[in-house]
Amino acid sequence: MTAKIRIAPSVLSADFANLASELEEVEAADFIHMDVMDGHFVPNLTFGPDFIRAAKHATTVPLDVHLMVDNPDESVDWYLDAGADMVTVHVEAARHLDRLIHHIQDRGAKAGVVLNPATPVCLIEDVIDIVDCVMLMSVNPGFGGQSFIENTIAKLERLRALCRDHGVDPLIEVDGGISGKTIGRVVAAGANLLVAGSAVFGAKDRAGAIADLRACAEAGLR
Ligand code: DX5
Ligand code: ZN
After folding, report:
1. Are 117 and 93 in contact (CB under 8 A)?
2. Residue 175 catalytic?
3. 169 carries an active-site annotation
4. What average pLDDT does range 10-34 have in this prediction?
5. In terms of CB atoms within 10 Å, which of 79, 96, 216, 217 comes out highest?
6. Distance between CA 15 and CA 218 in Å, rounded?
């Protein structure tokens, strides 16, 4: 497993009216996490490709676009055209997951698959060899600021076992309820890309919040 820890602040908790300055404050991040919600797949509605294009112009940090939409097969090109560097698609929403992963990669972006809290790891057994990233939702998707679901730790262990069996080393991303209190255990269980919305944008000093998360993650790895 890759030991390098990557932090991805989620703009869901940022001030949308000041996107450029918000992004400037998180330049120390490894990815910017962009939560696209369609009001159908999840009970909330956020933004579409134009907002992603605006973010792309405002930062050099790679964009990690999390598609919480019912029709990722049909709409993925909008986000690739807008400048997504990585697109993660829910296995519960994709119709032809293998084709979708290859399509994202053929367009030059990294492709990730996402599992909701109630979706078992075994569902990705037949795509684990080709994905760049697997993301586990550690909250039910739709909102920032929810509590971390503890079962994610056991699920990470099952995911690591699957990766070991297949001899692959994708990014292991966890999304939801990540804070200084939870990040240590999550990285100890094998995650190496951590989404943090309220823990970063809820803090006054965003760079300091990212540094604190990195320090807590390092402590968890020791
Ligand atoms: C939830 C989103 C998350 C959210 C995380 O559906 O996918 O990315 O922004 O927010 P926190 O870190 O506050 O739990
Ligand atoms: Zn997300």
Report:
1. no
2. yes
3. no
4. 98
5. 79
6. 29
